[in-house]
């Protein structure tokens, strides 16, 4: 499970043999979440939240939005 980013107490990862569509797993805030990486003008979308407060999930989603292009590039480098 490669770590692609760390920020504000969150760890952003994906599984090396993960499935489409591109997404990132986020650990932190005493929980975890999974976010689809939009791309081509579409915003990231939360798919699953487990044990994470809404405020932490919102903060993590903002970080994904700010880094979406880099996350998508890392996904492509690893999976294509």
Report a brief summary of the structure.
This protein has one helix at residues 54-79, and strands at 3-7, 10-13, 23-28, 31-36, 45-50. With 80 residues, the protein is an alpha+beta fold. The chain has a 5-stranded antiparallel β-sheet with strand order 1-2-3-4-5, with helices on one face.
Describe what you observe in this structure.
- By secondary structure, the protein is α+β, with helices and mostly antiparallel strands.
- The protein has one domain.
- Helix content is 32%, strand content 34%.
- It is built from 1 helix and 5 strands.
- It has one helix at residues 54-79; strands at 3-7, 10-13, 23-28, 31-36, 45-50.
- Strands 1-2-3-4-5 form a 5-stranded antiparallel beta sheet, covered by helices on one side.
- Strand 1 (3-7) and strand 2 (10-13) form a beta hairpin.
- The chain is globular.
- The two termini are 16 Å apart.
- The model has no long low-confidence stretch (mean pLDDT 92).
Helix fraction bin: 25-40%
Distance between the termini: 16 Å
- Please indicate the percent range of residues in DSSP E strands (runs of 2 or more): 25-35%
Shape: globular
State the main characteristics.
80 residues, alpha+beta, five-stranded antiparallel sheet, 34% strand
Secondary structure elements and their pairing?
Blueprint: E1 3-7, E2 10-13, E3 23-28, E4 31-36, E5 45-50, H1 54-79
Antiparallel strand pairs: 1-2, 2-3, 3-4, 4-5
């Amino acid at each position: 499970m490669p770590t692609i980013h760390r920020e504000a107490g969150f760890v952003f990862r994906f599984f090396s043999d993960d499935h489409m569509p591109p997404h990132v797993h986020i650990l932190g805030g005493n929980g975890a979440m999974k976010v689809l990486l939009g791309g081509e003008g579409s915003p990231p979308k939360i798919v699953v939240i487990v044990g994470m407060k809404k405020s932490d999930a919102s903060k993590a989603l903002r970080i994904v939005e700010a880094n979406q292009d880099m996350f998508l590039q890392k996904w492509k480098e690893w999976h294509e």
